[in-house]
Structures are given as structure tokens and as C-alpha cells.
Amino acid sequence: MSAKEQAAWIGRPVPRVEDDRLLRGNGRYVDDIDLPGAAEAAVLRSPHAHARIESVDVKAAREAPGVVAVWTGADVAHLPALLNREELRTPPRLAELLDPRVAITPMPLLAAEKVHYVGQPVALVLAENRYLAEDALELIEVRYSPLPVLVDPDRALTADAPLLHDDLPDNTAVAVATRVGDPDAAFAGAHTVISEEFHAHRYVASPIETRAVAARVDPYSDDLTVWSNTQTPHRVREAIAHTLGRDSETVRVIATDVGGGFGQKGILYVEELLIPYAAGQLDRPVVWREDRSENLTAASHAREQIHRIELAADADGKLLAVRDRITVNFGAYNMTGLVVPYNSLCHLLGPYRVPNVDIDVVGVLTNTAFATPYRGAGRPETVFAMERAMDRLAARLGLEPAELRARNLIGPDDMPYTTGLVDRSGNPQSYDSGDFPELLRRARAKVAVPAGERPEGKHIGVGYAMYIEATGLGPFETARIDIAPSGRVKLAIGAPSQGQGHRTSMAQIAADALGVPLDVIDVVGGDTDKTPFGVGTIASRALVNAGNATHRAGKLVREKALDAAARRLGVPVGELTLTDGVFTTKTADGPTLTLAELTGRAPLPGTPEPTDGRHGTELSETVHFRPPGFAVASGAHAAVVEVDEHTGELEILQYVVVHDAGVIVNPLIAEGQVTGGIAQGIGGALYEEMIYGPDGQPRTGTYMDYLVPTSSEIPDLDMDEIHSPSPMNDLGVKGLGEGGAIAPQAVLANAVEDALRPFGVVVRRGPLSPSRIRDLLRDTTPAVTG
């Protein structure tokens, strides 16, 4: 469909242009990179959760067939330890206002003295293929001296707890607290106060494509090229350059097609530094691919939090204050600093008006795999606590849970609304736009409880949950547009696609901004040579940042093109339009010129070109978009479930979601993103849990034990949306990639508790497997009210 036949590309449900290639098996993942003569790597990982390394004997491994090299911690001790510097950075304003504590725990590329979790890399084997490398791993002999193990974060905070890191005074990874108003007085004078403890359990992003890295040094230029399925190629480039002592411009990182990241691939890992180092040392390409067991036990985990939360309300259910003591299990290393804890802190209030606030967050180091952001990044955990607390308060007051929420929602006329908290950038937290009452009204209207009596032992429950999400995290993102001599448009953005359909949605934005058809636009993302500056695809930021950078770059190139075409045609620029790639005059029978004709010809002889740098024959532009603040997305979820008291089986009869992500660029992609998020949220709510024994050994290291949902476990979704354009960017868009994953744990827990209300069940953690539901029924004394 041409641009002439459409009012705009933005807002159209255009099928994803990348899908034809992917469905035909023509994707290009790291595993598809053909590097002749490549050595393959395998990692020896610690079998102990906490131990001193007494000795490492690799002699037999080095002599094994096909082995190229074997490295231990001593062999790479001269290289800098791994630090996720950008993630650990505290914004100056936030540091000034709240004085948070952030412990720095550099991670050695290979452990030399101690191991801190099961799965920590101890040695690297490089061989002619992975099979020979794995065989050599078994020949390495490591003598360990076990140390006391900490798995429980509460225990790790006690005064007599053993230290994980000898250079730290205790096991605190981060600590930050904030207060608004006078919460102590509000609690003292409240009509009703509820106190609860809720646990968000640990689980794993588990992308369909595990982590992978390949590297090659060019023998002529000595430049290093790295292929990684990372979400942040520019940060990987900078880390590699720092580690190897290279100039950044000699390192190229390419994020190829990626089979899901969800935050797990948004941080730096030691393998991303070791493999490029090996390529340089061996003078040959090197490849490493993570297996599924490694992904489950040695890649980052997420979600584990404890909320000790209190709500104070008046007799009508109006919230007066909230107090929450949040404990976050960071695992063995502080990889991302305040990112998850502070997300939990500043999203706790959600869409509710709460005048008095007291929140204290502590991140704790334990002998478990390190934790990092996973789709939602601290928001599902805090929404679980707040929305569960709202249901407990409603039960205490004798109100319907939805009605209690309605009485406390911030209204559209209050926008922009300031909460009194400080956002992640250190500025006053502000909700830029939204209509929270309308979200809830639509969700309530859609809920349909089955009529009639249920079979014996089957109980129906209804649950609600609401959330807000600050999207569009800065500091910037880059877009570069070039018009080729053929008239094709080359768009390069700093944010790689992780399956979100960037090649379609970003092309739609560029097509509108330029005035060209969609099919002449080629989109490249995540190649550090195409866009030397960028941040990445994390924190629901790609559409807001890369999208607006694309929009502005397109407008500037369009302006240049109109100017050049006006000079070519000899008409005033104000008389020209550019539509569907064709310049036409506003008067009938005027001259026309195609974009390809304009770019494919040299300037007319003797025609002077402007020298102001903004206009000329080179039709290209680079824009770095810096968001002035967060674009706040929001949503309301509702669920109707049936619970069998005899078997503990849960069936989702209806799942309702009403979301607000501002202007929607592509409704098909938006629906897919929300659906995928909900599917992962249901997985965490009902199935997925990474379990550790008291010895720090993971007990769910394969898919035989770690359950993930399939399509048959995900119900049809009853979906609706409203549109509150964000005033924080030109397009009015908000991020939505994480929104679907934020509320499912809370909404399903609320629905299950409602179904089992006659038994007095209180749901304080998940996943709500049949066995856990049976445990709740067995351990609870029947009661009529909450």
C-alpha cells in the first residue's frame, strides 16, 4: 500500500516485514555466523556455592586431543575484572538527594581465589570443537575448600553471617530509603492498618536462544569484530575495549538476530570479554555457545524479593500511608546496582494517591547466581506486594477489591501528577499522562463470572491488579538516515531488535517522517559501526528513544530533500510536497521528481551548494534523542479462575488486560508484545521457580524440573486499550514491551485467594502450582472473612 493510499503509516497494523525471512529459516543468529577455522570454547564452572580454590591442575586437559588452550584464573588475572559500569552508576541528583549505598563487587573473568555461586566460571577450554572442549573439561582437577553458604537473604543480613566478599563490611549490596509526608502520624491515626509479608520468588528469563558470542580479529587491520546476542552492543564494545586495552573504534560489536533477551542479555558477562580476548591471543576466530543447563543455573536470575508491607486507610478505604521494607536477593555479585531495587521503590505506589510514604530497600549478597533485570525489572515484584496488600485491605474493610482501587486512583485531571518520590534520574517523580479510572472501568466491564452452580469442589475467583511503568529510560538513543543513490532509505539505530519487530515499526516511523513508501526502507539495529553511539534495548526504551530519534532524523532529511528538489526543479521549496517518494508541486501540471532521480544525479553545473551544513546533496542525518523525562505507561488486568480444592488445579477462565501505551505505532506488534509479556507473567505466577537447597545447589537445573508454560497453558486474552499520548516526546509514544509481564502474578494470586476465601486462604507467594494450592488449603483454618 502506497503512502498516497494511507493517511499515515503510524497506527497501521502492518505485518512484520522480518517474519518472512525468519519463518523460512533465513535468520542470522550467532550460531549461524560462519567463521572458518574457529576454535570453540567451553567453561568449567564451580560445583560449590562458596569455597576457596586451593589448586587447579590443567595439565591433562591441555594435552587432550584437539585442545588449543586451557586458561585458569591465574592466566587472565592481568585483565580487569568485570563491572557493569553503566548499570552501577548512580545519577548524581539521586545520589545527592537519597545518598544510597552501592557496594562494588568486581567479578574476575575466571575465579582464582574463591567461588561464590554454583556455576561461576573457573577455567576456559578452547578446542577444535565443543565436544573436544567438553571432554577436556572433565580432565581438569580443582581442589576446593568449602566455606559457609548463605542462601537466605535475611540470614545474610545478620551480624554473625559469614562474608561473601572479604573487602566488604557486610553482605549489603545496595541500600536506599525514602519518605514522603508524615507516615508515622498517618499510621497512628488510621482507622485500619494491615501488615503483610509477601515473597516474590526467584525465576529465570529462559530465552529460547541461549547466550552466544563469536569473535574474530582481522589479520590486515587488526580490528576486532564481535557477534553477540546482547541487548546492549555499545556497552559490550566499551567493556571489550577497556578490558583488552583497545581503542573503541577498533572494536565492532554486532547484535545479530536474537531469540529473546528479556533483560538477561542486557548486562555484561565474563564470556563476552573472554571470547574476544581468546580470538586475539589465538590469532583465530573463537565461538562460545551457552547450553540450556548453563543458562538456567549460571546466567542471571531475577525476581526474588521480600516485602514487609503495611497500608493505612480511613473508614472509607482512602489510603493514608504505605510502609514497605523490601529485601532483594542480589545473589553473589552486585551486577546492576540500584536498577531493580529502585524500580521497585518508585513503582510501589502504582496508580494510587498515597500522601504518606516510607520505603526502605536493601539488596543482599548471597551464594546464589547473581540477579539482574528481567522483563519488568522490579515492577512485577512490587506490584505483587502492593496489589496483594490492596486485596487484604479490601477484605479487612469489607469492600470489593475493585471498588477499593477505584476510590484511590489518580484521575486524568490530575496529570501531570507528582508523587513526592524521586525517579531513577534523580528528578521529582511525575506521571506525565494517563486515565487510570478508565482502565479499571473497562476491565471491570469485561469481567464475566460464569453463572450457575459449580461442580463440587470447584471454586470461582476474580482478581484485579493495576500498574504503572516509567518507560523511555535515557540518557539517549541514536538514529541515522541515509538516502542511497537508488532512492532506498537506510535507517540505522543503536537499539538492537530482540524480537520486537524494529524493522517494521521503525520503518513505519521513518516512512511517515520522510514521505516514502515502507518497502524502500532498510533498518539495521545494534551494529556499533553503523551507529557509533547508542545504549540498547532495555527498560522499555527502544520505541520512545530510537523511535523519536528516527522521527527527527527523518524530518531533517525530508527538509534537506525538499530543498534540493526545489533547486533542481527551479520552484520555491514551499511549493513542493514529498509523498510516496515523489516530489510534486502544489499546482496542477507542475514538474515532478522522484527521490531516486534526485539522489542519483550530480548537482547541476554551476549550481552553488549551501554551506550551512544543513542542506546539500548528501541526504543524511544523525540524531541523538534525549528524553526529557519518563513516559508513563499503565494498565489494569483482571482474571477469572476456577480452582479445584481436591487437586489444586487452577484454570484461567478469563484473562482481561486494558493497557495504555500512548500512541500505538503498530497494533499487531503491540498486541504481540503485550501477549508475550502476559505469557511470561503467567509462567512466573503458576509454573516457574528456580529453587536452591540450603547448600546453595540449584535443584531446578533442567526443564525436567524447571517448568515453563507452552501455548496450551496460555488462555485467549480479552484485550483493550486506551491512548493517552505522552507529552514527553514528539510521537506521543510510551514503551509497552514489559507492561504485559508486570501484573499477572498479582492478578492471579488475587483471583486464587478470592476463589478460596471460604477456606481462609491467604496467598503470600507463588508459583501457584497445584501442590502449593493444596498446601495452602491444608495449612489454613477455615474462615469467612479475610
In short:
The chain has 786 residues and is α+β, with helices and mostly antiparallel strands.
How does this structure look, described?
Helix 11 packs parallel to helix 12, helix 15 runs parallel beside helix 16 (542-569) and helix 18 packs across helix 20 (744-755). This protein has 786 residues and is of the alpha+beta class. The N and C termini lie far apart (58 Å). Strands 3-6-1-13-10-11-12 form a 7-stranded mixed sheet, with helices on both faces.
Gap between N and C termini: 58 Å
**Gross geometry:** globular
What integer is the average pLDDT?
94
Extended strand count: 29
Strand arrangement, largest sheet?
3-6-1-13-10-11-12
Largest sheet: 7 strands, mixed
Low-confidence segments, ≥5 residues, pLDDT <50? Answer: 1-6, 611-616
Could you estimate the helical fraction of the residues in percent?
25-40%
Rg, alpha carbons: 28 Å
Instruction: Quickly give the structural class.
Output: alpha+beta
The number of helical segments is 21
**How much strand?**
15-25%
